[in-house]
Amino acid sequence: MREPLSYEIAHRAAEAVLAAARAEGARACVSVTNRSGVTKVILADDGAGKIAVETSRLKAYTSAVMGVSTADFAKFAAEPVLQGCPPHLVDSQLHPVPGGFPIVTDDGEVIGGIGVGGAHGDVDARIVSEGLKSIAHLLV
Question: Is the pTM of this model over 0.70?
């Protein structure tokens, strides 16, 4: 099967997210994964620490494999019915923290995930959405 998320698209998205983070004064890390959660790109800005790198990767992974934003996944994971078997026990890489979004084509196919670490969750989420806007024309 052909990889629908090219390196070019992944790299452009990561660069756009990093630029959006810098515009907000954040020193962040951005990760992009394919639909299986395999990392394609990690860009860590000057001053982004190890935790930013790891959380960005986990957010991208979670969004790609679950097909929803990490904020939506957090709501799902917090439902009382899941307290008996929390999702992180099924897959320890699932990260229910805002700042990750699936990369979705115009026809609704999830082809990857993108995540930001290093700022507050709401700022991370806003920065990621800016990056997704910049590649929307490539996802047709």
Answer: yes
